[in-house]
Amino acid sequence: MHPLSTAHLPFLNLFFENSKTRIPEYLTPLGYIIYSELNPILERVYLIIDIGTFIYGKDFRAEVTVLAANEEKFRKYRDDKKAIYQYHHNHFGGDTVQMLQSKLGSLEEGETYFVESNYHSHDNPMDHVYKLKAEEYIATLTEWFTAHPVNRSRIYDLGNHEEVDKHVLGLYNSGSQRVLNCINLRDLARYGYGPRKSWENNQWFNKYYASLKDLVILSIRNNKSLLPEALDMIKGYKYLVELDLSDNNLDTVPPGLDTLADLKRVIFRHNNFTGMEGFTNLAQIQQLDLTDNFITAIPTEIAKMESLEVLDLTSNKITELPIELLQLKNLRVLNLSNNPLKKLPEWIGQLTGLEELHLVQTQLEGLPESFVNLKVSGKIYLKKNPFKELPAGMLGMGKVIDLEERNIALYNPKIKKKLEGLPRGNVKMSADLNFKLMVVQRLMYEDELLLPKFDVYEFVKNHKGRAIDLEEISYEMIPEVKAWFEDLDIPLELLWDIKELRADGGDEIYHELIPHWDGEDDAFDVVSAEDVKYFPNLKKITLMGNNKEVVKFLRGQKIKVSFL
């Protein structure tokens, strides 16, 4: 094995986000990286980074597992050359190691082999295996991972197949006792199901978890409540990088998060926060996700979050934006979709450095003239807004704007002229109800443009005709519901932007007509696609059934057809 030194520490740290002390140890004969660190009980544990790729030099991926849980067990790899070759043999399977030695020759000092993951599937597999100078190989990895940072949020192997719990680095929904046995645990996710009446009954997140000092990612979601004692111990995870406490009925920020210097991502979706107090003190974090809470305002203290790169406030109650957002010089993604903004401030054009700005479904009827000065390297998402007028200067913003054609026509004369030739008004789309249902699924339940959404339980409750018992007829199509959808008007303007339609047995629309439909029969197969004539931009459609006449007709209209 090629020995590594402290000079390789910057290279090693490319794979990690926190400040835990690590020691580079060796590069293995097949290009894996061994490093060591102390675990919470002060044993020196040896971990190995599996580097893989399908095209050498073009793309790499990384996964970390435990090689040896203490120094004594690592000694065999350090002292016995055959042991690390056997590790690779067990990992790759077959005779990969023997093949490399026979075809490429034995390794000299300072060399390593590297094998592309799919080398054996090529006609010339030897073109996809390499003998490399170790330092040149490390330089290649350094260049790649510097330019393309690894998705470090999921670098740890789940490890549920490991022989011993000390080798497990990531656990999802395992039992409480299993978690406590995994002393080297880095990534813990638990999806709970209901009220925790006492500390002793809070099995998914209890006081004993305080011993898991090396946690990097903690995700505890969907509990009716989390006890104060549980929230209080989070500040003890000094290496924590990501904290996800979504769906827990929280309205208070756990104490001490501002002391966690490594904390970068905080995700508290679907909780009960009405303000951002407590979050604005987290000056060290890079991502804050408070989607689907009850936040009414972004406080001026947001300016303190100087490291913030991603701010997601989707589906809150925010009506205006503070000018202090201009002080967030590192902000790349700002998501304000589904908030009742109604209008944007004049200073919006001064935002710089953004890659994405999401303003979908924000009740905007217009945009200030300064909007055209907004510099975004990626996209500005503006769909699902009731625009009445837009600045003519937006024409110069080009494809940065993601907007329906009917609204692009407000500032683009070419699109306006194109749409003036299209029919307007409403249509029943009566050629085939099942085709119409695909359209309603898209407009009503996905794009949320055809509102209000139909709810069969509300329909039955308010129905003035015969009594409808859903428990008795929920496996049959309800005639009254069928008639409602048949009579539903579809505004032609909503069809102009649809480029793709897709039917799926799990779509909500089908369960409105047959509440307990199992998706196994042909009740909703399309038998006529004549109504595609109303779709000027439809390019692709996915069907549940394979009606040959329908397929032939659609392909004749230059529409690509696929099937579930």
UniProtKB/TrEMBL annotation:
Q: Which PROSITE patterns match?
A: LRR
- Residue span, DUF6892 domain: 430-561
- Reading the lineage from the top rank, the first entry is Bacteria
Q: List the Gene3D superfamilies.
A: Ribonuclease Inhibitor
* Keywords assigned by UniProt, alphabetized: Leucine-rich repeat, Repeat
PANTHER family assigned: PTHR48051, RAS SUPPRESSOR PROTEIN 1
What is the protein named? Leucine-rich repeat domain-containing protein
The organism's taxonomy opens as: Bacteria, Pseudomonadati, Bacteroidota, Flavobacteriia, Flavobacteriales
